[in-house]
Amino acid sequence: MRIPCPYCGERDAHEFAYLGDATLTRPDPAAAEAEQAFHDYVYLRDNPAGAHEEWWYHANGCRQWLRVARDTRTHAISGAVAARVAGEPA
Amino acid sequence: MADHSSHDPLAGIPFDRVPPSGAYGAGGAAGVTVATTDTPFIALVVARNGFAASVAGRLGRAFGVEVADQARAAIGAASTVVGTGPGRFLVLSKTEPDLAGTLRALLGVEAAITEQDDAYVTFDLAGDKVPDLIAKGALIDLDPRVFLPGHAATTVIAHIGVTLWRVHESGWRLLVARSLEASFTRFLVASGAEFGLRLENGTAGRG
Amino acid sequence: MSTSNRNRLTAGGLIDRARPLGFSFDGTRYRGYEGDTLASALLANGVRLVGRSFKYHRPRGIFSAGAEEPNALVELRSGARREPNSRATVTELYDGLEAASQNRWPSLAVDALSLNRFLQPFLGAGFYYKTFMWPAAFWEKLYEPIIRRAAGLGRAAEEADPDHYEKATAFCDVLVIGAGPAGLMAALAAGRAGARVILADEDFLPGGGLNAEAGDVGRKPAPAFAAEMVAELMSLPTVRVMTRTSVFGVYDSGTYGALERVSDHLPEPAPFQPRQRLWRIIARRAVLAAGATERPIVFGGNDRPGVMLAGAVGTYVQRHAVLPGQKIALFANNDGAWREMLAAHAAGAPVETIIDVRTEVAADLTQAARAEGIRVLTGAQVIATAGKTLTGLTVATASGTERIAADTLAVSGGWSPSVHLTCHHGGKPRWEEAIAAFVPGTCPPGLSVAGAAKGVFGLGACLKDGAAIGAEAAQALGFTVPALDVPDVADAPFALTPFWHVEGSKGAAFVDLQNDVTAKDVGIAHKEGFRSVELLKRYTTLGMATDQGRTSNVTGLAIMASLTGASIPETGTTIFRPPYTPVSMGALAGHHRGKDFRPVRLTPTHEWARAQGAVFIETGAWLRAQYFPRNGEKDWLETVSREVTSVRAGVGLIDVSTFGKIDLQGRDVGAFLDRVYINGFAALAVGKARYGVMLREDGMVMDDGTTARLAPEHYVMTTTTANAAKVYQHLEFCLQVLWPELDVALSSVSEQWAQIALAGPRARDVLARVADGDVSNAALPFMGAIEGTVMGGVKARLFRLSFSGELGYEIAVPARFGAALAQALMQAGEEFGITPYGIEALGVMRIEKGHVSGNELSGQTTAGDLGFGRMASTKKDYIGRTLAARPGLTDPDRPAFVGFRPVDPSRRLRAGAHFLPLGAAPTMANDQGYMTSVAYSPHLGHWIGLGLITRGPERLGERVRAYDPVRGEEIEVEICAPGFIDPEGVRLRG
Amino acid sequence: MRYSFLSLLANGLSGQSRWTPAWRDAAPKPAYDVIIVGGGGHGLATAYYLAKVHGIRNVAVLEKGVIGSGNAGRNTTIIRSNYLLPGNEPFYEWSMKLWEGLEQELNYNAMVSQRGILNLFHSDAQRDAYARRGNAMRLAGVDSQLLDKARVKAMYPFLDFDNARFPIQGGLLQARAGTARHDAVVWGYARAADRLGVDIVQNCEVTGFIREGDAIVGVETTRGAVRAGKVAVAVAGSSSRVAGMAGLRLPIESHVLQAFVSEGLKPVVDGVITFGAGHFYISQSDKGGLVFGGDIDGYNSYAQRGNLPVIEDVCEGGMALMPRIGRLRLLRHWGGIMDMSMDGSPIIDRTPVPGLFLNAGWCYGGFKATPASGWCFAHLLAKGEPHETAGAFRLDRFRTGHLIDEKGVGAQPNLH
Ligand SMILES: Cc1cc2nc3c(=O)[nH]c(=O)nc-3n(C[C@H](O)[C@H](O)[C@H](O)COP(=O)(O)OP(=O)(O)OC[C@H]3O[C@@H](n4cnc5c(N)ncnc54)[C@H](O)[C@@H]3O)c2cc1C
Ligand SMILES: NC(=O)c1ccc[n+]([C@@H]2O[C@H](COP(=O)([O-])OP(=O)(O)OC[C@H]3O[C@@H](n4cnc5c(N)ncnc54)[C@H](O)[C@@H]3O)[C@@H](O)[C@H]2O)c1
Ligand SMILES: Cc1cc2nc3c(=O)[nH]c(=O)nc-3n(C[C@H](O)[C@H](O)[C@H](O)COP(=O)(O)O)c2cc1C
Ligand SMILES: [Zn+2]
Question: Across the interface, which of A21, A45, A75 has its CB nearest the CB of D303?
């Protein structure tokens, strides 16, 4: 599997570390029900069969966290953007 | 200098020592020569948020090279600026003893500077077979028609993190973490033996 | 040496008669020629019995001329280089080749287990599931060992593989898989367009079907045409031709796995050459031109040596100039096989009989055959065979049965395109009625198929199709493809009547020759409900042998389809998986074995430590000094105790460069650290360091370490050796993903700085001699952190920290000065008896001091468990805070961190022992925790331990059992506070 | 037909003509007391024990493909009960006990073979961790032995003891562990359940749930709607997808684990060996193939296939451990989709949706659990209470913090 790193170009996935679902947002710790919100954030996943937004860290490359769009049924990757310029979570 | 002619070019060399200088593998003219040096002065420049372009511009002007915020090596007479990540530049200099200080003065609040003079061992590889040798460890396209002089990459070679760039037609420079020098040299020797490999370990400043 | 070669034609073929090669099989010596495979050379020498089958140990011969071979498996080479299950049909002959038959005892000709054939009626599909159950204990003791010994095929080498392997990566625009007519044309079309092309073929001679083709192509003999194409391809600057290279798998994003057999055609690899090389080929487009595989017809006695695929007969005759036999018959259902036999006959092969299941066969074929004196039987079926190796056939025709003498029976049931690689992404092949075969369905992205692999069987059509598909691939990438002159070859129509199985034939009729799966087994599976092809496969093992059912899958499912009444496409096929042909483990490992399994990281003082006599130990990727034995010390414990005592009494030093060191600069570093550590860092004074504990978001401790503030906007963090990369990655995540607005720049400085810890009451005295500036208690108080120089101008960072509980410093200098610093400290400390110590002594001292380390930071402990509860700030949010408050993590009964001492001080403690209340039975319910770390404390003169026990801190003074049955030990220990030495910290502040 | 030497003999003499289907290929009835979604080992075992132990026989197992086509049919067949944590260990030991009598219970030879598992260690810290685990096993009444290097060498002299990057120091042995023939386990349970009246419905994919109010009262399938008193989901790698149809998000990610088999060989490895300094474990099937595996690929996947980096990593581990296998050939490799839970341990529980029960989160280790998983899930379904050995496998443990994290890597499924 090759990930199109916006900085390094296309690289084999073994250069990256994977962290999973990139659509989650860290909850506000001060909000009511924060514990429930953190539980959902840390443990619950949509885990879709199909389009998936996910975090990959280019550990052996530019050290960017990338938000990669990949299909979990085919492994086809349709794009990757850096977290820092990605703006709001999709 | 040892000449190794046995089948296993690493036979008898302890794994926790840098293989000694010498000729390894196939006889005849060496297909690859490897020279290790301690590049005297290296610093890492990390642009603070929003300053990447400005930092690139300042570095370029200061060292008289064209620096862009991308994976390229801008090679000047005395200095080279290598992009290793967005807003991240490794600056190598032959002449600036207090490179970090110079850079701090140059870049002020726009960047964080760290000394890295001792973090790396520099491998200078020369010869036509260099791309074939590196291709035995890396999964990037090093075809000389694609990876041109001035192109740079930070990647993995045989489980070892490396920043490399092509210096000129047949010269390649690789930076490897100092702690991994022995293992990386072993990889080069084992993989380069079929081409004939000449290893010259620099000693400058070591120890 | 036997020189017989009695079945060798005197002329023709692609062998070099000027280069004879000697080889041996089962100890008998023979001769072949360069250009032979082991199989062709054996046939040339009249060797027909080459192996024994898997289950019934039936005699087997050579069945094919390619990678699909199910029968002719041999052990190649010997000793450490023994290669079991090597297919003789693709083994390139070399001088001195040694091969032996396998799966037989005592010999190939007389095999004791061939008695299994008498049990054959009872050993049908799945028999083992139905028996061997009584008495229960007999399974492991009796039945299974017998089964295991009888099963398997070849024998693995007993010694380490002496050869070298490597891996490499190649990139191209177009990868062409297979160098037959279709592949050659595809490569030429793309290559002439200027695309970067890799043409890979597993054969040593590119050309594919052209090398066995009798006719001309472009007014040249077909093999010469192939050679010319290859020569042109090799001359193109952007084309790389790789022979002896099998593309075995299609992985994601255009990554193809390929195996190059660099030296397998040599007795042993040439100096400095690998035996094999694993290629990862990264291709923007690929063209699969892998050809097709002929499939047999199933009938009783079809496994007798001498029964062979028709195309293989053709290949041996045309390519190797070998006659597989002297009396050849054909049994077929298609025209192609007729042509193959006529061509072989023309080349000198004595074809005597053609038996075709069809009642109507094209007149041109029957006439041509009869004109050659070949007997033609149409509407006929072979129903039995005879002979140890084949001597005769029984044929049923409309007019009855008759016996026909034959030593070779060519069979052909049609052709199956080699669609394997198209299925590696889960694509299902599609049934094509016209050729009665599966053709590629949905292919992996970027892969297209050309030639016979796609069901295009005529040679002329293959050439054209290859050219078109190659051009298309290059065009898709933006290349302009010049027009290509494709030689015209007139293709005869491909006429075939599907026919799979001669029902009612005599004797076992094998579908899968290697796994001994018979048509009857398919019937059993049907009766028992294992009707889906996947169940059929798993129940009968059809298609699961080393050939992966190349010649049996389609026949097997066709027979099942006929039993269920479903059509073949409804029945479907099993999935093809990589590798396309088996790949050696050595190649997949490459350089990474033995000491080079993983790279080793060496500390800046490695050579220095070696000179000091250090014993080294692997700690993760690092090699570290474990201890420094001296002459006369009887064991490691004595050495370590000496090291500890010297430090506590005087001074010692240790390299701690392996810690992760992270440089943080920016306006928001303090705020950032406040969010990643449980305790506060924003208010840390410049010039000071602080110990910090970091949690995961789930509330468990992730790492600990000290962080120093060197300047208002500049901090350096240390992490544990084990977690260095993980923590760096975590911090980058926090900065890039969670809080991109923070102004913090991270850099790893782990490699830049050598760091040496200096500890002991005389540490300051030693440091003062090496440091260039003031290191007094006032200038550098406990937890102070300053920048300065040492050794007369070497830049340094000085930290006053203590892991050992002694007055201690950590001195960081640029890595190349690490060893010099160690030397300087040794010199400076000489008068105080300074000692280098290793990580064992370090461990002892931290246990004496009661610090947590890797064993306690198990990922299963909370800050509260480890006694850091009060460190956690209540005034701020930090990672992990919210979930650390869950009931399960705050349960007061959780095991918590304390110290342990043996009640009988002569007893040794063991990490991993569990704690039980005194007198309680050893049950899980009574388990209260476990010992995390132990050490012999020379200071106290007995073993001490750290551990986690329920409500530990409330139970100081209580005695419990440390239960360690795996080492047969159990001792009484007393719970104590975790600091065994200087709990007030007087020494380290001194 | 009962299987025995005699039945084999009789059939052999009659030309194998008298065999009958091992299980009926049932069509779905309109309603059942319990519907089990998923015809893997767990689903079939659940059906069997429901019928056998609890007398609930109006049960259907709905399988979208053929039974055993999921992970039950593609795992590396290791069975063991060498767990560390109290939430896990008694459960896996109960499973081990059930394995030990399985063949006689089912009248089917599943080739349960207790040839031992040896987990190698290469450092003192690893040794201590294994000692901790071995002692925990003993406390649970389970066999375990801590072997030193000499004893390991006596067992497996061909491991790399001389030139290893990470020298072998010893190993934790569970002698009662071993392997079982994966497909036979599925077929054996299917046949035994069928005999007790359970309907095994293949090619019947559950595509939705039928609801009455909050409660689930049946399923929609590709073969029509089927109603049920209780719906029990045991779909392994598909847990999130099926639970999603009921509106549940689970603490699960689906990941691919690859497995590998070599060409058939005369005996090389007797028991199961795991390498402690890399990702590699190996055993040899009764047919002679070396069956081995390693780490998961590490990214969410439903593709049932993996990639080269892990293949290489596994083979590097293999060569580092057993340098004699260099010339042996990999015959086939494949992938399975596992439901990796957030703490690496399973879930057998009710769900917040009335009528819906969940058996999930088995990660790479649920084959060995098959008998106990079926037993305990059946118990929960029949009694409404968790079985005593499975009481920790609750869905709400992530909320309460009563995690069962054997590896201590936290909520990151690709690290478990
Ligand atoms: C490569 C690999 C190696 C492994 N090795 C081991 C090992 O050595 N030891 C060990 O203990 N464990 C191992 N495991 C784990 C083990 O295989 C699984 O945990 C276990 O098989 C899961 O339970 P199961 O058998 O019920 O699952 P499965 O066999 O996957 O059963 C689930 C079934 O549900 C069906 N299904 C899914 N969705 C639907 C739907 N909507 N409608 C109807 N049916 C549906 C599927 O088709 C499937 O048949 C391994 C797993 C893999 C992938
Ligand atoms: N007699 C018949 O009925 C009949 C049927 C089918 C094909 N044919 C003949 O076969 C030929 C087909 O031409 P073609 O070019 O399609 O195929 P081919 O069989 O000529 O060539 C295929 C080549 O691919 C190589 N190969 C296969 N799989 C490979 C892999 N995974 N990696 C590397 N190499 C691999 C083989 O070694 C072979 O050289 C024609 O000559 C055609 O007439 C005849
Ligand atoms: C324990 C075990 C042993 C296996 N042995 C073989 C074998 O000898 N030959 C073979 O072709 N496949 C073997 N397989 C793999 C199966 O053919 C198949 O790949 C696997 O069950 C996954 O199914 P799939 O490939 O159809 O998806 C084995 C699988 C397992 C789990
Ligand atoms: Zn990158």
Answer: A75
Residue among C910, C920, C928 nearest C970 (CA): C910
pLDDT for the residue B7:
75
* C847 Cβ contact partners less than 8 Å away, ≥ 6 residues apart: C933, C934, C935, C937, C944, C945, C946, C980
**Residue numbers of the domain that contains C92:** 1-160
Backbone φ and ψ for D102, nearest 5 degrees, come out as: -65, -45
Distance from CA of A41 to the nearest CA of D (A): 10
Domain co-membership, C647 together with C667? no
Q: Tokens 């070859």 belong to which residue? A: C489
Structure tokens given for C891: 């349960």
Pair (C627, C644) in one structural domain: yes
Total number of domains in chain B: 2
CA neighbor of C206 nearest in space, from C224, C227, C237: C227
The kind and range of the H/E element at A14 are: none
CB atoms within 10 A of CB C874: 6
**Which residue do the tokens 């930092």 mark?**
B55
Please report, for the domain that includes residue C895, its CATH number.
Answer: 2.40.30.110
In a domain, B88, yes or no: yes
CB of C555 closer than 8 Å to CB of C296: yes
Residue A27 lies in a domain: yes
Q: How many domains does chain C have?
A: 6
pLDDT of res. A85: 67
Range of the domain at B47: 41-115
- In tens, the pLDDT along C834-868 reads 999 999 999 999 999 999 999 999 999 999 999 99
Q: pLDDT tens digit string along D52-63?
A: 999 999 999 999
Paired residues of B193 in beta bridges = none
pLDDT at residue B3 is higher than 70: no
Please tell me whether residues C283 and C330 are part of one structural domain: no
Spatial distance between the Cα atoms of D147 and D144, rounded to a whole number of angstroms: 10
Domain contains A89? no
In chain A, the number of structural domains is 1
Helix (H, G, I), strand (E, B) or coil at B51: coil
Shared domain check, B141 and B91: no
> What is the C-alpha to C-alpha distance for residues A45 and A57, in angstroms, rounded to an integer?
19
CATH classification at residue A34: 3.30.2270.10
Would residue B172 count as lying in a domain? yes
Q: Could you tell which of D66, D71, D74 is best to mutate to test the pocket of ligand 3, judged by most ligand atoms within 8 Å of the CB?
A: D74
Does residue C523 fall inside a structural domain? yes
Query: Cα separation of C699 and C155, whole Å?
Result: 52
Q: Which residues pair with C354 in a beta bridge?
A: C330, C376
Give the strand pairing for C753-759 and C652-655.
Answer: antiparallel
Residues in chain B within 8 Å Cβ distance of C745: 46-48, 111-112
Domain of A41? Answer: 2-82
Choose between C623 and B204: higher pLDDT. Answer: C623
The ipTM, to two decimals, is: 0.97
What distance, in Å, lies between the first and last C-alpha atoms of chain D? Answer: 43
C34 and C129 co-located in one domain:
yes
Q: Which residues line ligand 3 (CB under 6 A)?
A: C 544, 548, 575, 577; D 73-75, 77, 182, 259, 261, 285, 287, 289, 291, 304, 331-332, 334
Amino acid in the structure at residue C634: K
- Cα separation, D47 vs D196, in Å, equals 9
Asked if residue C758 and residue C683 are part of one domain, the reply reads no
Chains that touch D (3 or more CB pairs under 8 A): A, C
d(CA D62, CA D227): 12
Instruction: Return the beta strands (E) in A6-83 as ranges.
Output: 9-12, 17-21, 51-57, 65-71, 77-82
Strand partners, C788: C796
Claim to verify: residue B49 and residue B144 sit in the same structural domain = no
CA distance C685 to C439: 74
Helix%, strand%, coil% for chain B, nearest 5: 25, 35, 40
pTM above 0.95, yes or no: yes
Contact A65/C at CB under 8 A = yes
